[in-house]
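Our consortium's second objective concerns turning raw sequence data into structural hypotheses that experimental partners can test. To show how far this objective has progressed, the report includes one record in full. It was chosen at random from the queue rather than selected for favorable results. The single chain below, 208 residues long, was entered without modification.
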Amino acid sequence: MDVMKKQKIVIAGGTGFVGQGIIQQLSPEFFEVHSLSRHPFSSHAKDQTFYHAVDLSNPTEWQHIVADADWIIDAIGILLPNPIKKQNYQNSSYEPAKSIIDVLVAEPTPKFLFISANTGPFFMKPYLNAKRAVENEAKKRLVSRAYFVYPGIIFDKARYSSYLPGLFLTYLSWIKYFNNLRPISRRDFATNIENILLGKKSTLQQRS
């Protein structure tokens, strides 16, 4: 009987809301999961993820971690800029992704899975522009190793600021405009990511 080889998955932003959802979905039986984040992270006892506190702008700290990976998932990004924290789409979405792409150009094995966005209201245009800039960079430089998913709002009870709007939009999804916003629960989103890692198709791989 054939035994499935474990895939090595590296999640940039693995300690965040979306990254933690993916980690909870990926069974250690099939995946060896590593997380890259700016700060140390204390996980629960059953979590077999390897957590690495690194500076993505300094590849010498983490390139060896991704060199033999099967996939690197970019779960980094902000929904809205925060001037107080000096966070904007350039330094908190585009530049981290570009650092990853720069490294993957030199590492021919890993595939790159970028969490983009399906669409959004007019005031989210800068957010969508940053996402599309990363897509263009990855398509140009990684070609067939670049993969993308296009969710809308990802919601879960663990974050009520997303949960209530997510439920509201889901109830209105029979209206085309709200359906295009593509709300999805964090668990369903993580299941779609797992399917892609296992070579299956996901409806999130196409914009609606």
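The partners drew two points from this record. The first helix runs from residue 17 to 25. The radius of gyration is 17 Å. Both points have been shared with the crystallography group to help prioritize constructs.
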